[in-house]
Design brief:
Rossmann fold, alpha/beta, globular, nine-stranded mixed β-sheet, 2 domains, two-stranded antiparallel ribbon
Length: 457
Amino acid sequence: MVKASSFIIALAAMVAYSCASAPASPSTSGEDEGSSGTLAGGALVAGLLLDSKVARRVPARKPRAILAIASPRVLGKAIGMGVLEEKGYPTWRLSRSEALSDVIKVRIGFSARLPEGGAERQSGMLSIPAPRGDGKRELSWIVFLKGTEHQRDRVPSRKGANETAMMDAAAALGYAVWAPDYAGMGDAEGAQEYCVPESMAASALDGLAAARAYLAGRDDEYAESGRLYVMGYSQGGMATMASLKAAADGDIAVPGLRIVAGYPLGAPLDLMPGIPFLADDGATVERPDFAALLAIGWSRAYPESIKLDDILSERAVESVVPLFDGSRDADELLWAIAEALGRKEGEVRADDLYAPGYRAAIAGDPSSSAFYAAQSRARLDRWAPPRGLRLVLAASPSDELVPFENSVRARDWILAADAEADVSLVRLESQSHGLAAVEGLLYALIDMDTIERGETI
């Protein structure tokens, strides 16, 4: 859930790299390649490819340079390396750095179902290794789900997205990488449906259907292996678990693909731990930007049952909600929210932000609040994956934003449901939520690449 700028802090070169991809070659100049999206009865149908545009080509030397810089000695100055070294990172890094391809980046416009019914236009980025020119490339899919970002345009389909370096590295290794922007971000209009599992799963899997349609249109150059991996950190880890559940439960089909493994990393699988503080009106709301955005997003996703006026104070609805227009980053929002509520930054209280009726419900009967009840029903630490799906949970016990117990509870719930389940919990060594992102995503990439190459884990 942390603002993703800290994600790259362990390797400063990644920031420069994500803004410095090469422009498209003349043969992929970014012209609109047309639309295969159609309307049914005047309404969008979920999962359609609406349009595609080749954005740019990333030469292999760029991800190769990142791997060269990301030596254990350099990374070890910022993140814990013990888990990665045990996983074989030093050997993997050297052995795979010479096998990288150029990457083609394709902006995808697609239709995604909405929890409130209907569908909307959304966007995302497809990253694929460049064609070989000597036959088809067989690709396995990675759905890569981003962490929290307040700014509408700091998303995979635009330049400057924080996880771009990791997405490009995965594509350069030979994977088709699909990364959605989520509802309310990128091309999508309206408020961000923040941390709503049903919404994030739709962005991931309806967008995957559209990305697959694009790849099918290039069947002279590419073929699918039929294997699918899903990974993400923080909000992206929650989106990962939501997507795995939606696909495994049959809510959103992924025909022709088998989910091999999922990696919910640093994931807020239960949004409820901070709720008890609301019983104390004077308690400080540590991250009022996240708190307000949750209320805004869930009320947009479920407008019939969740009303913003029932959650936020009248002053917050009038002066705080308009701040979430997608133009401000976390630092700007935290300052502006405090000013709007007449507080100093870091001193916003529960009674400033939340409506009296909501605070009373939380203190007395939380289940009487539609907002609380919806989040409780959507808890993802109470879902067990089917047999045959490898699940790797990873989080740092030192995480200051997402309690480590989120991942512990999920692991324990799964094993209680099926003692033979293929689930593991990796204790990341990095000392903060942001730094653990680098460690966790590298771990996941090594793990899936090891599976893909048929090696023993």
